[in-house]
Structures are given as C-alpha cells and as structure tokens.
Specification:
The protein has one domain. The protein is 58% helix and 0% strand. It is built from five helices and no strands.
Length: 114
Amino acid sequence: MAQKYKAQQVADAIKETRGFITYTARYLGCDRTTVYRYIDKYEICKQAVEDARGGFLDMAELTLYNKIKDGDITATIFALKTLGKSRGYSERHELTGADGNTLAVKIEYENDYS
C-alpha cells in the first residue's frame, strides 16, 4: 500500500469528523476503504475511532438521562429495559445452568393411555 497519509493525519481526521468514516474519507479526499485500512493497520487510528464513538455514546446517554429527568416515560422504559435488566426490568429472561453453562431440561410424560 502506497502511503499517502501519515497515520496521525488520518487519526486527526477521524477525530475532526467524530468517527464517521464516510466523512473522514471525504475530509481526506480518499475512499472509505483507505480509511478502514489505516484503522486496521495503525493503533492510533483505531483508538481515534474508539474515542470518537465513545464520545458519541456518552452524548446519547446524556440525552437519555435528560429525557428521563424531564419525565419522559418512553425514555424511562427504554432505560429500564436495557440498563435495568439486572434488576428484573426485562420482557424476556434468559435461563442458564450453573455458572452460565447450558441448562439441561428433562421432560417426562406420564403414559396414561389405558
């Protein structure tokens, strides 16, 4: 691969475009596959994506928090169903055996065909 950019340049572009790869490619004037190659090859680029996406998630969580604080029932239900699973707020429960292993179920039928 002929290196057109320094890894730091790509990392800076990723930060500037908040981790959106299409925008990063447009910002650099290259194809998305080029950006993905840099992310795969250089830790600094991979870390820039993780940091940008972490910031994005922080912002989304803050928005959710503010909605809940304002009394938005839909946001509250969403938070309970996703973040409150360990407290029993779930529509679906998954069962496992001891230490998270497979749960063995034995079904016995009573033969009452007399």
